[in-house]
Amino acid sequence: DMFEDLIGGLKEEVSKLIFRVEIAKEPFLERVLVGDPQMPQPTLGRINQRGGNNNLNQVQMKIPTHKRSESKVGRNNPCPCGSGKKYKYCCGRKQ
Question: What pTM does this model have?
């Protein structure tokens, strides 16, 4: 009997909370809809080869990629810190 009262009380509290919830606007969606100049601009997907426009509704974002300024160090190459050890036994071990 106590368990049923507990479950009933929980159901009542949950239903009260559900009806009090207010949906707030997300600033990200607002910026996308309004058009923030700092955000990447969307491009439309390709039209299907069979004449359909299934991919037309999908929006692809061009995200800027990070370019490496230095070449990648191989695991068996000497470590760039100048210790004389192989990279995998020196600074490569930290990663």
Answer: 0.29
